[in-house]
Amino acid sequence: PEFLAAFQARIDADEKIEPNDPMPAAYRKTLIRQIGQHAHSEIVGMLPEGNWITRAPTLRRKAALLAKVQDEGGHGLYLYSAAETLGVSRKQMTEELVSGRAKYSSIFNYPTQTWADIGAIGWLVDGAAIMNQVPLCRCSYGPYARAMIRVCKEESFHQRQGYEIMLKLAEGSPAQKEMAQDALNRWWWPSLMMFGPPDGASEHSDQSTRWKIKRFTNDELRQKFVDATVPQAQRLGLSLPDPALAWNEAEGRYDYGEIDWDEFWAVVKGHGPLNKARVAARKKAWEDGAWVREAALAHAKKRAARQSVAVAAE
Amino acid sequence: PEFLAAFQARIDADEKIEPNDPMPAAYRKTLIRQIGQHAHSEIVGMLPEGNWITRAPTLRRKAALLAKVQDEGGHGLYLYSAAETLGVSRKQMTEELVSGRAKYSSIFNYPTQTWADIGAIGWLVDGAAIMNQVPLCRCSYGPYARAMIRVCKEESFHQRQGYEIMLKLAEGSPAQKEMAQDALNRWWWPSLMMFGPPDGASEHSDQSTRWKIKRFTNDELRQKFVDATVPQAQRLGLSLPDPALAWNEAEGRYDYGEIDWDEFWAVVKGHGPLNKARVAARKKAWEDGAWVREAALAHAKKRAARQSVAVAAE
Amino acid sequence: MPAAWVAALIGLADDHLILGHRLSEWCGHAPMLEEDLAMPNIALDLIGQARGLYTYAGDLEGAGRDEDALAFGRLERAYRNLLICELPNGDFAHTMLRQFYFASFMQLFWQETESSTDVTLEAIAAKAVKEAQYHRRHCAEWVIRLGDGTDESARRMAEAVTLLAPYTGEFFIADPEAGGAVEAGVLPDTKALQPAWQADIEQVFAAAKLVLPENVYAQKGGRSGLHTEAMGHLLAQLQFMQRSFPDMTW
Amino acid sequence: MPAAWVAALIGLADDHLILGHRLSEWCGHAPMLEEDLAMPNIALDLIGQARGLYTYAGDLEGAGRDEDALAFGRLERAYRNLLICELPNGDFAHTMLRQFYFASFMQLFWQETESSTDVTLEAIAAKAVKEAQYHRRHCAEWVIRLGDGTDESARRMAEAVTLLAPYTGEFFIADPEAGGAVEAGVLPDTKALQPAWQADIEQVFAAAKLVLPENVYAQKGGRSGLHTEAMGHLLAQLQFMQRSFPDMTW
């Protein structure tokens, strides 16, 4: 209890907690869970966009998409490293992911059906991610906060890129505009769901807030996202698939319709369109790659052994 | 020697040899080799055309191609059955094929690059096959001769279908006509090679002729094919890729240029564009299917055991 | 039959085209030669059924779209096939189970359609029902053989059940585009086919010693053009020639 | 640089596009996260090189074809890439060995091209040579690691050698479309690069404990548009959008 109070005092003083600092077990556990989920989301997030790398419409778009998906892998790497500072290995986390036990952002369980989905993901999904992540740049845990600073910078580049894809489509032929509208229709609601269940139904929030792991509630972040995104959609000349959406002059914000929480919980529980396919794809990559990782290890050992023999002989 | 003379007398009298008839070991061996190669050719021959089933340009063409490739599988089945009457099992023959030891028609080691190749194969490759096979309908070995009658009927249907594909292309847009000409350019020489090495260089021929397994020499059949095919090409308005090709009034046949026998032998020896890929595809199908064949066998045994128990209990 | 139901016919045709396409991918790669004949044979029947349905849909629509315009000329979001039809083949157990599920359903569907008030559909059904019966029998035998074969085949069959079961619920969701066609006796009420289908599956699973899946969450979306990621790659192949060489005769 | 050599530039660009495309297929499916970063990185470099070459070829040609018209708008028979670039990825050993073969060759190629009499190519080479060096080093390390790793990795590497060796001879066959460009000092004489390439392979194979293949029959045809059957399926993906939505801006 004394320790907890002292720890809370450090947090309250906006001190950063570093890997070797003492910390409550629950703080560590919460962070491991959250950073792990975040890392998994980056890794699984490579799949829906990766699905269009071989079919991108121009070389410029192909290169940009390849770079973007690669960035996501990079984010996964920083985040796994941040989690490792808390005493959990990348291998452990990966095994949790491929066994289907670990969670990741549910949005990646939806399919990318058209090229416009690549635009919509960049614009909306990365946009929502930024809303979630910007406050994390001030998270109390140092390694996570620092990883987030780097991630956010790249995400906002991706978001602009996604918006620009949408813009080109919206300015394009009727077929392109229709593709853009259709993608927006399909990704809008899942994007709103990215902020998690409504505040009443969300676990962990209070303690996380006290520990400055979380700084805004789900509904606060969702509202910020809606307020930022509606004018962007208007600039594209696209309509949002929500008849209840309206400017609320009194509150200075957009009101929006009821989210389909049944769909949200179904996807969380593994029943989204591609949950099984996503985990299966990661599992296949992991299992098919086992011999490569073993060989790399075996080779490193052989090389080390040869070097020590060489050193001994000198 | 007495037996051999008696056997030859039966052959000379145009009697059919049947599975349970006594026959010289060399006759049996020759037939096993030839029928096996012929069966393998049908099976491997499914691959180049199968490559276009998923990309056929219309539903009518897709259905016809599917039916054609299926017919080839059927031919393989009759031929393996004919070979089995000589005491070699389908399993043995298949293992020879997938190990890369067995021969099959070299033409199937060339790739199908465009839709026109499907036309060219039907027209030229099936056309050449018919030239080779029609005489085999009178082969001295009964089961082979009977299989060939059925095969030839279907092959000539396929050949007309292939020619009709070419005709549609030749009558079509410039892009289609160019595709047809290109396919003819690529398949013409390999088709001439299908009749095997020139008469001087061919093994087995003399004995096979005496046994009425072979009734014409390679060069005779090749000449028949050229004479039949040149006017067909003219009707299509396509040119044959042979500057030496010319009507020989005196002999009443077409003269044609020198065949690139180096290429022929290279492909026979396994260095054609797709020899390795063809054998690998058959090997994969065979190995991937092992568990299915084992399960079918295991189930049949279980069922038989249950039936005998049921019978015993009556 | 009113043109309003064209989309429902197209959906039905898409089921057959797309599943036939998938099945045709096996051609030359089957586990045994007999199946290298049987699978293309089933694929041929499915493509034949698709052709009849597309042609009739095109006639009813009256916009000049023939079977090929419908089969090859649409964007992914306009294809209305059930999701189960587009799933990648997986192994032979997976392919046979999928085909059994579908054929068992279509056998019941065509049986009902044989007494359609629409004479063209009645005629299509009369032919198709016999084909579906043969497909169902062939595939049911494989489900039993593999389910009650070796340990490996039983394991693979059980895996196929787990993977495919979520996609069977979509058979019995009423097609919104068929509104009225059911009441008019033109198309069967698929919901009403579920008990007979379920009984068929149970009977075959019992013989195959397979465990019936429980509490399955049904995947849907195909009839609204919401496809899996496999669909786009399938269409890239299927449409390759028509997209590369538009408006030509083959 | 005369327009007569445009086709040679296009062939070179095709090598990079097609191999980059193949490599990009690994994205999200690599054996470890580090390779999920490294392989797209190499693919990006290759696609970048392809873009520079296509653009230059289009400018020289003067027919209004930009990088995308060249990359996406041709029929299979007009693609001029070396066959090794289009082969399916196979396993990781296969992919790394292919990339090593290619990068080792391209490193030498770009080194020579750095002193091209053509200033644009000189500039492309100056950037590309550094990239090829990095690719070569990265892939050579994997060839060594896997060749001298476990029994399984050594077996897979040896298999990759058997499968790929026939496709390396094509590096050193003079491109008929480059006739004169070599004499003019614009493009390197690839034949002359063979000894240095061979020495590089030998050195890496020695470290990897891999046996050098002997009496290999060289496959060729890519530079004449004679491709393997894998190419058509690759193009169905690559060209999907441009074929489905012609003449649009993205």
UniProtKB/TrEMBL annotation, chains C, D:
<dbReference type="GO" id="GO:0010124">
    <property type="term" value="P:phenylacetate catabolic process"/>
</dbReference>
<dbReference type="InterPro" id="IPR009078">
    <property type="entry name" value="Ferritin-like_SF"/>
</dbReference>
<protein>
    <submittedName>
        <fullName>Phenylacetate-CoA oxygenase, subunit PaaC</fullName>
    </submittedName>
</protein>
<dbReference type="GO" id="GO:0005829">
    <property type="term" value="C:cytosol"/>
</dbReference>
<dbReference type="InterPro" id="IPR011882">
    <property type="entry name" value="PaaC"/>
</dbReference>
<dbReference type="InterPro" id="IPR012347">
    <property type="entry name" value="Ferritin-like"/>
</dbReference>
<dbReference type="Pfam" id="PF05138">
    <property type="entry name" value="PaaA_PaaC"/>
</dbReference>
<dbReference type="InterPro" id="IPR052703">
    <property type="entry name" value="Aromatic_CoA_ox/epox"/>
</dbReference>
<dbReference type="InterPro" id="IPR007814">
    <property type="entry name" value="PaaA_PaaC"/>
</dbReference>
